[in-house]
Amino acid sequence: MNNNRNCFDAKPVLDSLRTTIGDSEFGYRMQALFAHVLLKLGNTIIEINQRGHPDIKSVKGGQTGLFQVKSITHDFPGWSLTVSPEDIAGIRPSRSYEVGYFATLDCAAPVSWVVNEYSVIRRHETRSVTIETLRISADSELSSESTATFADLVMRHKNDVHLLTFHILCQRALRGEGL
């Protein structure tokens, strides 16, 4: 399928899922789906946390990725989110082989991931920041790859995405079993 088209077609699928399961559970599932995105991009998932920080730890090419994952509805222009000190602390690299990322799923049409490195996102700690501001300083390659992979996953599973619970998604990602 055309990945650009998938980014538009994924929105009603995600909107329906959010309406059915609620915002909180939706956020957890998007976090677990993002682990599957990372898996498809060649990462090994070593940890997924429903509570605590970081949300996801992965390994690729000798580097450990520390990911904090958020999803936003982006219902109106200028929509913003606040980056908490806990979010920043959870992705702060403490070893030379670690890299921190703040990954935001923008659920506006077209659906997209905006992935910022720790060095960029830490400047926004405790402040409200718009998705447009995050997009400007994002890792464009990782954001683009994540968006295309995510949209493909959602569209491939559009008829059964409601059955993919946080627990199931986590188990499969941690075992290295992609969707």
What is the structure about, briefly put?
The protein has 179 residues and is α+β, with helices and mostly antiparallel strands. The chain has helices at 3-21, 23-40, 85-91, 118-121, 131-136, 140-156, 166-174, and strands at 44-48, 56-60, 63-72, 80-82, 98-106, 112-117, 128-130.
What would you note in describing this structure?
Helix content is 45%, strand content 23%. It has helices at 3-21, 23-40, 85-91, 118-121, 131-136, 140-156, 166-174, and strands spanning 44-48, 56-60, 63-72, 80-82, 98-106, 112-117, 128-130. It has a single domain (3-174), classed as Trna Endonuclease, Chain: A, domain 1 (3-Layer(aba) Sandwich). Helix 1 (3-21) packs antiparallel against helix 2 (23-40). The protein is built from seven helices and seven strands, in the order H-H-E-E-E-E-H-E-E-H-E-H-H-H. A five-stranded mixed β-sheet has the order 1-2-3-5-6, sandwiched between helices. Strands 4-7 form a two-stranded antiparallel ribbon. The longest helix is centred in the N-terminal third of the chain and has 19 residues, at 3-21. It is an alpha+beta fold.
